[in-house]
């Protein structure tokens, strides 16, 4: 009896991607709690053994989906390239806004829905995502804000700056999912214009914080 050909690495990678895509879309629509491994296998066109082979378990699959979702929204390599560039901090911040806005227009937008579900109804998986993806990227973004304000990364005030900078951007991301009355109007605005607007307001606020921080430091 002739031997069956071995599955190549590319075939295995393709199967893994297909499972991730299927799981991502199902979880974005129904939530992790209501999606079974059987559901994912059926949508991906694979057997249950393939899920266990590539991800170890349903829990491992969800960790991988969250990681993939975050990487599609903000890629660490892209961030490192941006921060390591010769651009001024303001231009780096603009580049970050532009990157995020561009990603939300991609046809397969399940990553935003999956991450939104996990953020608003956190599970134990959020810690894995935070340690593996969020914290390394957050450190790079804080470096931009530190360079713009002179506030050390470990100072809680810089985290407050991050919240202020991120909040309007998150509002835009959510609005593009069609859950905001401003979604239709914003859909007509080019990404570079929105990014410039976000950056303009962020720079103004950060400059005000920088001046106040410097004044307090000088008075001590």
Automatic annotation (TrEMBL):
<dbReference type="Pfam" id="PF09209">
    <property type="entry name" value="CecR_C"/>
</dbReference>
<feature type="DNA-binding region" description="H-T-H motif">
    <location>
        <begin position="36"/>
        <end position="55"/>
    </location>
</feature>
<protein>
    <recommendedName>
        <fullName>HTH tetR-type domain-containing protein</fullName>
    </recommendedName>
</protein>
<dbReference type="InterPro" id="IPR036271">
    <property type="entry name" value="Tet_transcr_reg_TetR-rel_C_sf"/>
</dbReference>
<dbReference type="GO" id="GO:0000976">
    <property type="term" value="F:transcription cis-regulatory region binding"/>
</dbReference>
<dbReference type="Pfam" id="PF00440">
    <property type="entry name" value="TetR_N"/>
</dbReference>
<dbReference type="InterPro" id="IPR015292">
    <property type="entry name" value="Tscrpt_reg_YbiH_C"/>
</dbReference>
<keyword id="KW-0805">Transcription regulation</keyword>
<dbReference type="InterPro" id="IPR009057">
    <property type="entry name" value="Homeodomain-like_sf"/>
</dbReference>
<keyword id="KW-0238">DNA-binding</keyword>
<dbReference type="GO" id="GO:0003700">
    <property type="term" value="F:DNA-binding transcription factor activity"/>
</dbReference>
<feature type="domain" description="HTH tetR-type">
    <location>
        <begin position="13"/>
        <end position="73"/>
    </location>
</feature>
<dbReference type="InterPro" id="IPR001647">
    <property type="entry name" value="HTH_TetR"/>
</dbReference>
<keyword id="KW-0804">Transcription</keyword>
<dbReference type="InterPro" id="IPR050109">
    <property type="entry name" value="HTH-type_TetR-like_transc_reg"/>
</dbReference>
């Amino acid at each position: 009896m002739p031997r069956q050909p071995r599955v190549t690495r590319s075939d295995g990678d393709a199967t893994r991607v297909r499972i991730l895509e299927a799981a991502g879309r199902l979880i974005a629509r129904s939530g992790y709690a209501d999606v079974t491994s059987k559901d994912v296998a059926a949508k991906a066109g694979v057997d249950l053994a393939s899920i266990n082979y590539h991800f170890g378990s349903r829990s491992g699959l969800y960790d991988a989906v969250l990681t993939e979702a975050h990487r599609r929204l903000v890629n660490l390599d892209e961030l490192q390239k941006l921060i390591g560039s010769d651009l001024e901090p303001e231009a780096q911040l603009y580049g970050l806004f532009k990157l995020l806005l561009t990603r939300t227009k991609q046809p397969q937008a399940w990553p935003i829905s999956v991450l939104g579900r996990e953020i608003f109804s956190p599970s134990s998986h959020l810690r894995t995502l935070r340690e593996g993806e969020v914290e390394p990227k957050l450190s790079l973004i804080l470096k931009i804000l530190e360079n713009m304000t002179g506030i050390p990364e470990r100072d809680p005030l810089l985290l407050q700056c991050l919240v202020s900078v991120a909040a309007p951007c998150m509002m835009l991301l959510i609005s593009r999912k069609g859950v905001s009355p401003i979604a239709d109007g914003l859909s007509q605005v080019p990404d570079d214009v929105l990014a410039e607007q976000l950056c303009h307001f962020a720079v103004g606020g950060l400059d005000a914080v920088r001046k106040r921080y410097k004044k307090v430091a000088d008075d001590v």
